[in-house]
Design goal:
- Pfam families: CN_hydrolase.
- It is built from 7 helices and 14 strands.
- Helix 1 links the parallel strand 1 and strand 2.
- It is 25% helix and 25% strand.
- It has one domain: Nitrilase/N-carbamoyl-D-aminoacid amidohydrolase.
């Protein structure tokens, strides 16, 4: 199974429409891959908070249309990164005035939308994404012919319970689009390897290059195997990271070193 991670440079001087066209072209160039991955919020920039409302789009908006066609043209499974999704209001009184979400789109090789995932853990504490966007509530996995993907986004990487739940749901490969800042790049690499080791699963973590709203991006997209070994890692700039994976290695690792079978659940809290 071949995977290509497209570490895009999100240049603020490039319009969203221009970037969509460029992303679609990059996806089409990966027709030899089985799975292609784009980063988090690449149409707008993960830290361009002031642009979220303006750049928000419905689920089946311009990014959906461009990525659906690109996946079909290339004949690949496409994790199209994420968009700022604008939803309808709960009252249904007007389309497009509901909450915003950080929503990932996954397309099949025929261009059909296979699954969506709304980011559960929003970054920013009391500002930014944490206050501008709603929180997702659903664990999402995607069954491919070769493996099962577990979906997460950027800040989700810091919450191991999410990945353990995805493992329990059958995930063998985690796909994590991100807009991770350079100043915490050491955490990015460490956590990607940790999620792989503790769940004995592949990790495909795809970040962005460039600078979003003054925040330098870490780049360094990485592919980690079920033993925690780094199979490939990008640099800081725009780059396509391509690696051949053996999905059978997940089951082999879990059989060879069956640590997941030794989990003890339902432990009582310590007495005080």
């Amino acid at each position: 199974m071949r995977a290509s991670l497209i570490q895009m440079d999100v240049n603020p001087d490039e319009t969203s429409n221009s970037r969509r066209q460029r992303a679609a072209s990059l996806v089409r160039e990966q027709s030899a891959a089985d799975l292609v991955v784009l980063p988090e919020l690449w149409p707008v920039g993960a830290f361009a908070f002031e642009s979220f409302a303006e750049e928000a789009e419905p689920l089946e908006g311009p990014t959906y249309e461009a990525m659906s066609k690109a996946a079909s043209d290339a004949g690949v499974w496409l994790h199209a990164g994420s968009i700022v999704e604008r939803t309808a209001s709960d009252s249904g009184s007007a389309a497009g005035d509901g909450p915003l979400y950080n929503t990932s789109l996954v397309f099949s090789p025929d261009g059909e939308l296979a699954r969506t995932y709304r980011k559960i853990h929003r970054f920013g504490f009391d500002r930014g994404e944490a206050v501008l966007m709603g929180a997702g509530e659903e664990l999402v996995s995607v069954r491919l012919p070769e493996t099962t993907l577990g979906l997460a986004t950027c800040y989700d990487l810091r919450f191991p319970e999410l990945f353990r739940a995805l493992t329990d749901a059958g995930a063998e490969m985690f796909v994590i689009p991100a807009g991770w800042p350079e100043r915490r790049r050491s955490h990015w690499s460490l956590l990607a390897r940790a999620r792989a080791v503790e769940n004995q699963a592949y990790v495909l973590a795809c970040g962005t290059a460039g600078t979003h709203a003054g925040v330098e991006q870490a780049g360094h997209s990485v592919v980690v195997d079920p033993w925690g070994e780094v199979l490939a890692e990008a640099g800081a700039g725009e780059e396509v990271l391509t690696v051949d994976l053996d999905p059978a290695r997940v089951a082999a690792t879990r059989e060879q070193f069956p640590a997941l079978k030794d989990r003890l659940l339902g432990l009582e809290p310590p007495r005080r």
